[in-house]
Amino acid sequence: MTDKTTDELQQELMEQPNLKAYLSDNQSCFLERDTLDLLEDLRVCCGLSKAAIARRSGMSEVYLHQVFSGRRNPSRDRLLALCIGMSASLEETQQVLKQAAYAQLYPRLRRDAIIIHGLIHHRQLSEINEALFGENEKTLS
Questions:
Q1: Which residue of 8, 15, 35, 68 has the fewest C-beta atoms within 10 A of its own C-beta?
Q2: Closest Cα partner for 115 from 128, 102, 99?
Q3: Residues 26, 59: Cα–Cα separation, whole Å
Q4: Which ranges in 26-124 belong to alpha helices (H)?
C-alpha cells in the first residue's frame, strides 16, 4: 500500500517492535529512485549539455561527470548549485535534496529563503550568490 502518509509510516515504525516485519509490510512505500536518476531526468529535461550545466552550476566538468557517474556525492550546496544550473523548479530541487537525504530548503531560514526566492524567480547561480553575499550569507559556490 503506497498511499500511507509519512506520519502513518512514522507511527507504525514506532509501534512495530519487529524491524523486519515493518520493512516487509511497507516495502511498497519506500522511495525507489535514487538521486542519480533524478539528476539525470533533470539533465534531460533542461536540454543542456553537461559542459553548459557545469558552467551554469559553477563547477568543473570533471566534477560534474563524477557526480553523474556516481563517483562523487555532492554536498547540499553543490546539489543546490546543480539544480539551479539545470533550471530546476523549487519542487524538483526539494525532491533532489530529500532523495539525497539532505535538509530541504526551509523558508524560515534566511539563507534558504534567499535560495528559494532565486529558484522561484528563475535566477542564475551568480544572481543568487550575489543576493546571498549582499545579505551576509554563505554563497553556494
A1: 15
A2: 128
A3: 39
A4: 35-46, 50-57, 61-69, 76-85, 90-99, 110-120
